[in-house]
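Supplementary Data S3. Sequence and structure tokens for construct A.
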Amino acid sequence: MPFVQDRFAIGLWVDPPRTDTHYKWLADAGFNLVLAGFQKEPVAQLFALLKKYKLKGILWPQGDDPTKFPTDPNLWGYALQDEPSATEFPKLKARAEAIAKAHPGKLAYVNLFPNYASPAQLGAPDYATHVKQFIETVRPAVLSMDHYPIFRPERDGRDKYCENLAVMREQSLAAGIPFWNFFNTMPYGPHTDPTESQLRWQVYASLAYGAKGVLYFCYFTPQGDEFPKGGAIIAADGTKTRHYAHAQRLNAELRALAPTLMQLTSTGVYRVTPTDTPAEALKGSGILDLKRDRVDPPGDYLVGAFRHRDGRRAVLLQNYRFAYSAWPTVVFDAPLESVREVSKETGKEAPVRDESPNMPGLQLSLGDSEGRLFLLP
């Protein structure tokens, strides 16, 4: 019996101390998955907190014998390794099979390198080969990776992030499994401290490519020379940083959209750059055109297209700019009265509202990095 993901995963790297206050904060911020392995309090304490706050967990177990791993109804599974080389895949296969035998239905979780890892790190000539070999060898129930784009005035890593998501999308669809990804939440190394808009950009780009889980790096500020500034969602002294409110707002939107997101299968991703002709770039997406008022700059968008489990289509439209809003005139390929938007407040479907009714066509506003999800016949 393989692991089956039953909800959109909103998770984190570096779990907080296993206290009632910290786990209440997790739940209040909208998280539903804890990768537990950085704290030393008893596992029984973790299980009690998961139950109390209706959270799921993935445990970094002690030892190599799965028959001795602790288990719990709220435990999704066990983390085996972070960023393995392809040379380690056969060993991971054996460990995953042992877990499946000892704990049917539990996840054997492995997180992969990003696409900026070197061939020497990957143990493969290129990134796509690395991911494909992992799937073919280990046969995971979930595909996962971490990628932390650079947001600097002189260096923009967002296209590389999307290239990584494209590989995950392609390989997860081929294997028939969901994919998750970690994204950056804090300053370290060459990374500036992300703004709320930059966090939102990473999350909605992942959704456009069909992710069924997003994980924050990091939740609790890790110790060590790599993180001298601190600045995760929870500071090293246990207090909330400004990222707590950022995550709380983002996660509220994710939880509202989640029931619909879990019913969608990606059918395409479309990029509209400022130099593109939108009507050409969007062919087959469900959106015929994204027009602009003459005073507005050329559009910059990411569009994910999907098939809903009930047979309808879906389109996620994201403003690719993280510093400016957008006001496109949107032309769907279906009559407007048949299009519905999924509310990021309630999760319910509602007719699409024209936000500038005094202008011709359907005007929709997109805040900086914002994504909006629509359902089409």
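Construct B, processed identically:
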Amino acid sequence: MTELLPATARTLLARTARAQRDGRVPSLVAGVVRDDELVWSAARGEVCEPHRDVQYRIGSITKTITAIAVLRLRDEGLLDLDDMLDKHLPGTPLGDRTIGQLLAHLAGAGAESPGQWWERTPGTTLAGLELSRSDVVLPAARRFHYSNLGFGLLGELVARARGRSWGAVVTEEVLGPLGMHRTTTRPSGAAAQGFAVHPWADVLHVEPEHDAVAMAPAGQLWATADDLARLAAFLLGDTGEVLSPATVEEMTVPAGIDSAQPGWVSYGLGVQVQRTDQGSVLVGHGGSMPGFLALLWVDREEGTGALALANTTSGLDGGLAAGLLADLRAAEPRVVDAWAPSASPVPLEVLGPWFWGPSPYVLRAIPGGLLHLGGLGRPGRSSRFRPAPDGTWIGLDGYFAGETLRLDPVALNLATFVFTRIPYDPAAPVPGGVDDAGWHAP
């Protein structure tokens, strides 16, 4: 069922209306995606009709589009995320940083490009930026540091790899195939005017708009509510063969954060990832440019998304999209598919309790042909595993992500740990051996 209940629609409209009024936003368009469709939208303030087809500048949501273009190159075998930037874009001061680090804002690149504020002045080429070592502000992989400059470099990498401009590449390879035909690098057709609202009076100031050129991949795009809804559907799994679902899943894995913890905010590959106070994990991006603010968040577990587009430099509630998702989840929670039996991917005798030293764990078969190893009756290191062609299993998440699990007859071997059927089983190859006295009272 895609159509929302009238009570749900009123709740969403009330939240949107309050955000427009309280934030003193000249115009605001909000929408909700379910079952890969924009099932509800509303506009407040001075919005041209039809509001779903009015362009707003989406700012850093552009970075998600740029990341998709980079990952297409990776999936085609034209680059690796561990490649140094110099291999594909020589001559920059960040040449010893990897493509993956740039995508996840872990490369230590400066937050902004040198020179005047790129968001409010006409742009220049990469050569015109005249980058220097002063644009490297942190060591590689030491900490998250949001970098518009880093995504400018990734856009140039895409352009050189394809032999045409970044704008042409994303239009032909990402926006067109996804059906985002009203997303452009400059305003086209019905488009909102960007404003700043005076902090102490209800008066407006027109904000400038220029081609950012080398910095365009960090925040240049304009889009409509309908097009942002299509990007939400992409993040929810309707990839339109632009990327494989597995690559989209890879984009959403948090970098540098233990996602098992109750509350966190992180960044994946071109997307922001956060856990809300309600426990939901949201994937998406925010965007800001002078005169515009934008939000796009999806709840992949619920299969829902929410978006907001505003023509103001500041004032929009940054939690609006997440709030719309929370309202939708509370009013119309997803009805999950019925459980049905399925064949175990491993012999049943392998499943059940295992012990890491004296700590109890349990190995389970879970939907999708996967295995799950986690604490039994108490917290413990927890991971899902997928099958590998050689009969081993590879960790997908948690502490054992990327590690190899081997199912031996008397033990589970995992990252040098040996899990046994009884604590410190003398018949198993327990590291360090087992005391001959065995278990005994002091």
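The chain has a mean pLDDT of 95. The first strand starts at residue 27 and ends at 34.
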